[in-house]
Amino acid sequence: MDEFDARLAYVLGRRMRRIRRDQELSQEAVAWVAGIHRTQISLYEHGERMPFLSSFVRVAGGLGVSSCLLLDGVTWEGGQSAPGRYVFDDQTAGSAVTSKDGGSPWPGSDPRP
Questions:
Q1: Domains of the chain (ranges plus CATH)?
Q2: Cross-strand partners of 85
Q3: pTM, full prediction
Q4: Where are the alpha helices (DSSP H) in 23-102?
Q5: pLDDT tens figures, 24-83
Q6: Helices 38-45, 27-34: inter-axial angle, 10-degree rounding
Q7: Which residues touch 8 (CB under 8 Å, ≥6 apart)?
Q8: How far apart are CA 102 and CA 105, in angstroms?
Q9: Cα separation of 102 and 45, whole Å?
């Protein structure tokens, strides 16, 4: 995973975890409904894995939300003279990923606050 995809995985994972905890669901309960192993849910929530699209939709269903809700506010800005970037326009994502000069979009060296 490159640094931009790692940031996306981290943001989506935090959203998944927040929604699960708000609903007082265990990882096991979400995994059972989604048909995915509990360890995968943990890896997604910690931003260590990026789910396949089919798994992403299943996890959203396990959480009882639309997959669109998990992606709300996440967009991709294509670059003209530099590679594109993800833009996160909500507070759950932290600061927007705005590195156009190839520098790291992460605060400091560790991507997790």
A1: 3-71 (1.10.260.40)
A2: 77
A3: 0.73
A4: 27-34, 38-45, 53-63, 67-71
A5: 999 999 999 999 999 999 999 999 999 999 999 999 999 999 999 999 988 888 877 777
A6: 110
A7: 50, 74, 86
A8: 9
A9: 27
